[in-house]
Specification:
The complex is a heterodimer of chains A (307) and B (292). Chain A has two domains: 53 residues, no CATH class; 229 residues, MetI-like (MetI-like fold). Chain A is built from 13 helices and two strands; from the N terminus they run H-H-E-E-H-H-H-H-H-H-H-H-H-H-H. Chain A has a two-stranded antiparallel sheet. Chain B is 75% helix and 0% strand. Classes of the chains: A mainly alpha (307), B mainly alpha (292).
């Protein structure tokens, strides 16, 4: 929050008296934004909280106040905890590997190499295309009989897998696709981080006779920590929001093995129209995401400020 | 700098060093090329399948080059679902959202950057705080609000809630603040109104952030999935992403030629768009670090 406080101290705002025409224009200019933000952002927070204390199935059961009943249901529901475990599995399976590969590629791309632009385009292409469309392509790749996935496995002499049809392999399949899809963004972020490291540090180290491996360990790695942290937080937030690929590829199955928390929320809210219960799930998810976003802001704040 | 050159030159003289560097470079290129092939492979597979005739799709081992190039899949996909309508919907919604954001963000950013009024810091905080409110939290109340307004399954539901952006407001405010006050005073002397100053001077001076904002907003809206899935109901209102999903789920899991042709149609415009504005895009991400 330090940044916000600093932003508030705006030299021009020290003036005490306001001019009425300036105030009027300001409010006029702000009114569309404020109105829409209020209607679709601020008001919904309180309304979700309010709804989470009610039992309400749209068009079936009328709204009645039930106190914390929904939260009690939630904590004791095996399905909810399975969704939490699935989300954790997805996050832990994709994020560390994704970051390690992205950092490696970024370090290689940061050298003086030919065709850098071509490589960058190739690595970034999956990121800009839509998750839904790429999910359809990966369904075909994961086809048990004619898909590329099993062809690669058998070329390597490994046994074939039923991928999305196997409760044990459906989540790893989504993780592989997630890494492929998300790498481009992380690579760009790492490249930006690498270019922010001042060249004179490397020059100085070289004069002192440092080998390139030592430079990597004592200059690049420590100075990249803020970038890595930023990427980590964004990745965790995104993985908790992951939805489209599950909805297109698996419908949360087989046997609920890919029902992540965002999918669980969708199911209860918009398939069963169990709005009270779904609101309780949303509130729990919000608390987790808010915590992560606040951490991200603490690190992102200064970055934005220096521009 | 001098000493660095001398030092490296003395090291470069040894042939062992040369050999090591060449092998090192080869490893770098090998890793990058293998990685790039892995990234491109799904796209190649998609395109290759989309041109195969029905009999050529289910072959093992897979064939990369179709034995006969046919366009049937594209025609069949176009016939199987109203893709023309989906295209129009996606283009219209993404353009309207982008235009709306450019307008509301410019106005709000101008007020926050260059005007004084009571409650300024509180309102700015209120706007910024919305970055921290995830869609998942607001989607049920939004659904109910849109239902009350009788906007469900209309363009309003897909456009209006997204015509504001805290991120865009913040980005533009940072730029607007750098425009010197003397410029505004001079414009005022010449009888230029606030809106006139914003339109004729501030916006033309802020092209890069405006372009970044437009780019991210357009692509984000084009690729969006959860919102149009929930807020639309009829076939006529679906965007490309939702239309594609329903094509796949309704046709059953066997018509891969058609599915891949449809996927090419859905993703090709955004790929071409990206190739055209690539530099701007990469710069935008590095600049803002916020959207992905």
């Amino acid at each position: 929050m330090g940044t916000l406080a600093r932003l508030r101290v705006n030299a021009r705002s020290l003036r005490k008296r306001y001019r009425w025409d300036e105030v009027l224009s300001a409010y006029l200019f702000l009114s569309p934004s404020i109105a829409l933000f209020f209607l679709f952002k601020h008001f919904p927070i309180f309304y979700t909280l309010y709804l989470s204390l009610h039992r309400w199935r749209l068009g079936i059961v009328d709204r009645t106040f039930v106190g914390l009943h929904n939260y009690r249901l939630l904590i004791t529901s095996d399905e909810f905890w399975q969704a939490v475990r699935n989300s954790l599995y997805y996050a832990l399976g994709s994020i560390p590997l994704n970051m390690a590969i992205s950092l490696t590629i970024a370090l290689l791309l940061n050298r003086q190499i030919r065709g850098r632009a071509v490589f960058r385009t190739a690595y970034f292409l999956p990121t800009i295309t839509s998750t839904a469309a790429m999910a359809v392509v990966w369904m075909w790749i994961y086809h048990p009989d004619f898909g590329l996935g099993n062809w690669i496995l058998s070329t390597l002499g490994l046994p074939r897998i039923r991928w999305l049809y196997d409760p044990q392999w459906a989540m790893p399949a989504l993780i592989i696709m997630g890494i492929w899809k998300g790498m481009g963004y992380n690579i760009i972020m790492y490249l930006a981080g690498l270019q922010n490291i001042p060249q004179h540090l490397y020059d100085a180290a070289r004069i002192d006779g440092a080998a390139s491996r030592a430079c990597l360990r004592h200059i690049t790695w420590p100075l990249l920590t803020p970038t890595s942290f930023l990427i980590l937080i964004i990745a965790v937030i995104n993985s908790l929001k992951a939805f489209a690929q599950m909805h297109v590829m698996t419908d949360g199955g087989p046997l609920g093995s890919t029902t992540v928390i965002a999918y669980y929320l969708y199911q209860h809210g918009f398939e069963f129209f169990n709005l009270g219960y779904a609101s309780a799930v949303a509130c729990v998810l919000f608390v987790v995401l808010l915590g992560l976003t606040l951490i991200q802001f603490k690190f992102l704040g200064p970055r934005v400020h220096y521009q | 700098m001098m000493s660095t050159k001398v030092l490296t030159r003395s090291r470069e003289r040894s042939s062992v060093y040369y050999l090591g560097r060449t092998i090192g470079n080869m490893v770098v290129y090998a890793v990058l090329i293998i990685g790039a092939i892995a990234m491109i492979m799904p796209f190649a597979w998609m395109v290759s399948t989309s041109f195969k005739e029905a009999g050529g799709i289910f072959t093992y081992p897979p064939r990369w080059i179709p034995s006969r190039f046919v366009l049937d899949n594209y025609l069949d996909a176009w016939r199987a679902a109203p893709f023309g309508r989906y295209f129009l919907n996606s283009i219209f919604v993404a353009s309207a959202v982008t235009l709306g954001q450019l307008i509301t963000c410019s106005l709000a950013a101008y007020a926050f950057a260059r005007l004084d009024f009571p409650g300024k810091s509180l309102l700015f905080l209120l706007v910024l705080s919305t970055i921290m409110i995830p869609l998942q939290l607001t989607i049920i109340p939004s659904f109910l609000v849109l239902r009350e307004l009788k906007w469900l399954d209309t363009y309003y539901a897909l456009i209006v809630p997204f015509t504001v952006s805290a991120f865009g407001t913040f980005l533009l405010r940072q730029t607007f603040m750098t425009i010197p006050q003397e410029l505004e005073d001079a414009a005022k002397l010449d009888g230029c109104s606030r809106l006139g100053f914003l339109w004729r001077i501030v916006l033309p001076l802020s092209k890069p952030p405006l372009a970044s904002l437009a780019l991210f907003t357009f692509m984000g809206t084009w690729n969006d999935y959860l919102w149009p899935l929930i807020m639309t109901n009829s076939r006529e209102m679906r965007t490309l992403q939702i239309g594609l999903r329903f094509l796949v789920s309704q046709e059953g899991g066997s018509r891969w030629g058609i599915f891949m042709a449809a996927t090419v149609m859905v993703s090709l415009p955004i790929i071409i768009f990206y190739l055209l504005v690539q530099k701007q895009f990469v710069k935008g991400i590095a600049l803002t670090g916020l959207r992905g």
